[in-house]
Amino acid sequence: MRLFLGLPLAPAxxxxxxxxxxxxxxxxDGLRWSAQESWHITLQFLGSTGQEQYDCTLARLxxxxxxxxxxxxxxxxxxxxVGIFFAGVALTAELLALQQRITATTRLCxxxxxxxxxxxxxxxxxTKGKAGAKALQELKGNLHRAPRFPGFVASxxxxxxSRITPKGSLYEVRERFSLG
Length: 180
Description:
- The chain is α+β, with helices and mostly antiparallel strands and 180 residues long.
- The chain is built from 4 helices and 10 strands; from the N terminus they run βαββαβββαβαβββ.
- It has helices spanning 11-24, 51-63, 93-107, 131-142; strands at residues 2-8, 31-33, 40-48, 69-71, 73-79, 84-89, 121-127, 152-154, 156-165, 168-178.
- The strands form 3 sheets. The chain has a 4-stranded antiparallel beta sheet with strand order 3-1-9-10, with helices on one face. A 4-stranded antiparallel beta sheet has the order 2-7-6-5. A two-stranded antiparallel ribbon has the order 4-8.
- The chain starts with a strand and ends with a strand.
């Protein structure tokens, strides 16, 4: 199974992100818009996982203790190199501490943390095909004012299983872990 850990979003934030992204979306824009059911803030991508490693991960994460985390969004942005349009998340000391606790815990089960700096975000759309890069540039040009999004307090993090389908990835919650 292909796994990752992430923070679920508050319903009020999902509603606002959905309303804002609908304003930018067109049926022929060359982008694959993420379903709001898939929106989350990734804490760590674990990747392909066997049963023994999965069992270790569950046991270790059930032992993890961490306070609830205030989450604040920072507008929207682009990862041009990989063709992603996202809502940015403020990298607070509390969020970074949670992410570091999680990666230290999963390291005990054989996972290797990424070497890139942690950049929390919510993926709203990805490019598809050759028209995608042009569509991303057009979207960038049409964003005149960054929207303001409400913050929320994350009281749990989730272990997700990701399944690749022709229409994109589908995420299933495998386990919930309380914060606070």
